[in-house]
What does this fold into?
Amino acid sequence: MDGDGETLANLLREERRFPPPPEMAAAANAGEDAFRAADADGDAFWAAAAARLEWAEPWTQVRDWSRAPFARWFTGGRLNVAANCLDRHVRDGRGDRVAFHWEGEPGDTRTLTYADLKDEVCRAANALLELGVRAGDRVALYMPMIPETVVAMLACARIGAPHTVVFGGFSAEALRGRILDCDARVVVTADGGYRKGAASALKPAVDEALEQCPDVRSVLVVRRTGQDVGWTDGRDVWWHDLVGAQPAEHEPEAFDAEHPLYIMYTSGTTARPKGILHTTGGYLTQVAWSHWAVFDIKPEQDVYWTAADIGWVTGHSYIVYGPLANGVTSVLYEGTPDTPHQGRWWEIVQKYGVTILYCAPTAIRTFMKWGEEIPGRFDLSSLRLLGSVGEPINPEAWMWYRHAIGSDRCPVVDTWWQTETGAHMISPLPGAATLKPGSALRALPGIRAEVVDDTGKPVPNGSGGYLVLTEPWPSMLRTIWGDEQRYIDTYWSRFPGYYFAGDGAKKDEDGDIWLLGRVDDVMNVSGHRISTTEVESALVSHPRVAEAAVVGAADATTGQGIVAFVILRGDGGGDTPDGELAAKLRAHVAKEIGPIARPRQILVVGELPKTRSGKIMRRLLRDIAENRPLGDVTTLTDSSVMDAIRDGLPAAA
Ligand code: 6R9
It folds into this structure.
């Protein structure tokens, strides 16, 4: 974990502390008593959290860890996720409450009440049934940020068909890999969506992906942009034709608590993404509880906004399942923050009276760069709580967020969690915690986190190490789809008995936790996890590239930026000037993986630093990419390689 000393010194320089606002403390949903209850009896605590939901059959056992690391929660219990998110609110007189204020990027809007959403979800569920989808079948979604995306997810949940949402920014290639890995037979997509002021097509990528997915029999297409689309008769069907013709009644079936709810693909340390499997009862229990406690949700008053993509786990848990289970009103925004102007988010906060905003540090740092006079032009007085997720938030960004967006009033909750954890794990409770800018503080009630050294022993306060979770939790991943061994190897083998998160962390003198970023070869670019290996394999798939090593270098805006070191084939010369080749390689990676993975910088080198066992020493390349003096080079096969790399680089690198 090179560079930690520096990061930490920087983090700890901010000494200010922020106790909870008294009015929030007085009315908080959860505080110290939740910690006491969970410490006294963890199973009873989670049973009470599960009882906030509606079950068709009660469970007989809260947690079953007898086949560790394969967990079962709420054994024997049965429930329907969509009925919990919609039907019970409508039945109990909350049908007229707005579920989503949707704002399209061009400025078109839609308002969906809980009753509207339930009708739409029933129609879509009937449509999927008509397409032959049955409980257990996988459905892939490749969608823009429109209400139909939420509807399709809930329709899948309603009929027990696990969905896999593929982020709309990913390539046809990435989509194809995911469809094949989970063997989805039906794809839901749209003609396109709006991004940066223009219609951005989605359907062509689906068509391209499906050239090599012979088992996909139906594609359900939402008309969003009206752009021309290719059409395969017998396979493609318009959403408005099929869904629009269905009855708005559908009787929900209760599924086992361990029935698969969704698969979300995330980057690992190899080129093949991991299909993280979440199930029904434990997932919804913890997502709903954490959303209610961490954001102090008051469903009658709040207007809640997670400004993130639904294709990210944050969108699954805190745009769709958590907020709807809690019956709160949310904002859903289709587009980018600077379209048509850099105040778009703040205009939305003002327009809908948003009370709670949840977003990523990369967005906050972008807003910082644009200047505080932009949010200053809007009325942000409705806000009462701010949240952060996706990467470590540096104290400068934390302070700016609290000041420029939160008017020095709103607490900032820094929430640490992962695709794999399903829900928040380490975060302040805003009505109880005294906040430290840059720290997620401590594990939530019912969660056990620890920072351990190389040998798995807890480090003393004031020291750093690896973050682990020492007890199972309800919304934990159940496995990696189709690969139980990889699940064991990736998460449960580094420290036997503990879940290894892949993050470095430090305990301060009070025992509070500071996250320090990934310790493996996974980069975090604007909150998206991209594996170095994935980008490397994309680069070497180009005919001019012989070898490639990729590192994530600190980037003031995106958290990390991708810097690639490549060795060219043959003499390295050829007829393309270097600048042009770099542009070609960047475009090549964008095509192979998606624009988010496009390297910030491509550096042509003669050799790469390797250990004796042949592992590329990325930390040395990171030193170069971040303009630092080189660290320890003693394990290199040939230490002169580093001098050669440095000497050959352009001065600006
Ligand atoms: C929810 C989400 C997970 C990785 C995780 C860590 C980083 C997320 C963080 C944070 C520091 C926070 N991460 N939240 N690091 N502080 N509050 O982001 O899921 O996309 O799976 O990424 O993101 O490195 O391991 P996912």
